[in-house]
Amino acid sequence: MLDPLISLAFSMQSNKGAYALLLGSGVSRSSQIPTGWEIVLELIRKVAALSGERCEPDPAAWYTEKFGEQPDYGKLLDMVAKTPSERQQLLRPYFEPSTDEQSQGVKMPTKAHRAIAKLALGGYIRVIVTTNFDRLMERALDEAGVAPTVLSASDHLDGAVPLAHMKCCVVKVHGDYLDTRIRNTPTELATYDPRMDAFLARLFDEFGLVTCGWSAEWDTALRANIERAPSRRYSMFWASRGTPGHAARELIALRAGQTLPIEDADRFFDDLQTKIESIEEFSKPHPLSKDIAVASAKRFLSEPQYRIRFSDLVDNLATDLASKLRDGPFGDTMSNPSVEAVTSRIRHYDALTSPLVAVAAVIGRWGTSEAARALRRARERIDAVKRQDGYTFWAAYQHYPTTLLTYAALLGASLGDNLVAMSSLFEGEIRHRGYDVPVAEALPPAYFVEDGYEKLLEGFQQHRMPVSHWMHRTLWAEVGHDFTSQSEFDIHFDWVEIMSALACQHVRAKTEKSEFGGWFPPGRYNFRLKSREQVLARVDGNLDKFGDESPYAISALFGSNATECRAAVSSLKAFVTKPRWG
Questions:
Q1: b vs e for 316-344, b when ≥16 Cβ sit within 10 Å of the residue's Cβ?
Q2: pTM value?
Q3: Number of DSSP helices (H) and strands (E) in the chain, helices first
Q4: CATH number of this structure's domain 4-33+107-283
Q5: How far apart are CA 279 and CA 329, in angstroms?
Q6: Is the peptide bond before 57 cis (omega within 30 degrees of 0)?
Q7: Which sign does the torsion angle of CA 192, 198, 204, 210 carry?
Q8: Per-residue pLDDT tens over the stretch 141-171
C-alpha cells in the first residue's frame, strides 16, 4: 500500500492550491507558546493572587465558584488590565520572544511553520485555517515573502476578497491573541457567527483538508462545519501523533479521510514540503532546450545550497548527450567521406551538444572549481562512449563535441576572468587512437583532425584551420549574445585558442624533454595578427602586474611561475611569426 504521505504529496503537487490546512495547537507546541487555555489558567492565578486567595489545585473550579460563571478570556483580561495598551503589554510575553528566547528559538516559527510557508510560496497552499491565537504562521509567511490576508474575526469577512482571488489566506477561527474576542470556553466554541459559518462551509466544500495538531474534541462549531460540508471533491488527510481521538475518528470516517501517523508537526510538514519539491523536480521537462538549461544552471550556481541540483543538471545533460552520441550514426562504412557527409555529421554534433555547450559557457563565466570538475566529469562521460574502431577520420571527429564544450567553458572563463577556477578542464586524459593522451595535448582541433579531411566542411574548404573557423561560427551562434559585439567575441575566441595552444605545447615539452621550443597547435588566431597581439598583450600585462600571483601562473597551464609563463608566450610569438604562419 502506498504511504499516505506520498499520496498526499502527489495530490498536493498535481492539484496546486486545492488543499487547505487546518492547524491546531500541536503545530505551535515546539515553539513553547502556551495554549489559550493555559493562558486562561495563568490569568486566573493572577486574579487569585490579586484577591489574596489560593486557586490551586484547580484554578478553573475556583474561578467558577468565585464568580458564578465559567472562565472567560475577555473578562479575565479586563480584571487584570483595564486598557487595550495594558492588555497588549500583559499578553506579549506569552506570545512574543524576548531577546534570550529568540537566540534559543523559543516563541519563533517552527520547522512546520517554515515548511508551510514554502508550500504557500510555491502556490501549493492558499488557505490556512488555525485555532491558534499566536502569529507564528503569519511571521513565517512574511519571512518567506508571502503577504497573507489574515481573517481573525467575523467582521473581517465583510467585504473580504473572494478566496479564489487570495494568494494566501490565514483564517484564525478563534481569534488573535491581541483581540479580547478570542474563543476559549466550551460555550464560546459551540457556535460561530453566521458569517464565519457561511465562510467555512464554502471553504470545506471547495477545498481538500489536511489537519495537523487539532484534536476536534472541544471545537464543536468547527467540527460541525466540517461535518456539514456537502462535497468530497478532494480528500481529507489527518496527521496525528498516536491514535486519533473519538471525535477525530468520526470526522475521518465521515469524510473518507486518511490517517497519517507522524512523529510531530515539524517532521511531518518538513517531509511533506521536501516530497512535493522532489516530485516537482521530477515532473519538470528534461532541460533539453538551451534556454531552460541555461536558466537552471544560473539559478543553481547562484546559491551554494543548489550544488547537488547543479551537479544533477550537468550529469543529466551529459548522460543524455552521451546516449545520443553512442546510438547515433558513426559512418564507418564510408571510406571516402564527402563534404556533405562530414558537414552533416558536425551539424549533428552541434545540435546535440547545444544545451550543454550553453551551460558550459555559464560554468566558465560564473562557476567555481567544483563546477569545473562537474563539467570535466561530464566531458569524461561523453568521451567514454567514443568508438575506437572504424575509419580513423570518423574516429578523430568524435573529439569535436568535447573540444566544443571545453572551448565554450573557456570562452566564459575569458569573459569572467575565471581561468583559475576552470583550469582543471585541462587535466585528465582522453583516449585517442588506442592511447591515453593528456587533455591539454588532445584539445586543439589541429591535433585530432585527420590531415586533409579538415577541408571537408561546407563553406570552409578554402580556409586554413576550417574546424577552428567552424567552431567559432557555432559558438558565436550559441553564446554570442553574452558579448557586446562580434569583434569582442572574436578576441575572446582567440584567447581560448591561444590558451589551448600554450597548454598543449607545455604538456608536449614535458614529454619531449624540451623546454619551450617545438610545435604550437595552430588555430584561427594564427591568421589574426591584431587580435592575437591584443590577447598576448593581455597575458603579458597580467603577468607584469601580478607576477607569480597572476592567474596564468597560478593555473600552471603553461608555466608554474611568471618567468616560465613569459617564456612560453615568447616562444608562441616566435612560432606564429615564422613565414609558414605569417
A1: bbbebbbeebeeeebbeebeebeeeebbe
A2: 0.54
A3: 27, 9
A4: 3.40.50.1220
A5: 35
A6: yes
A7: negative
A8: 999 889 999 998 888 888 777 777 788 999 9
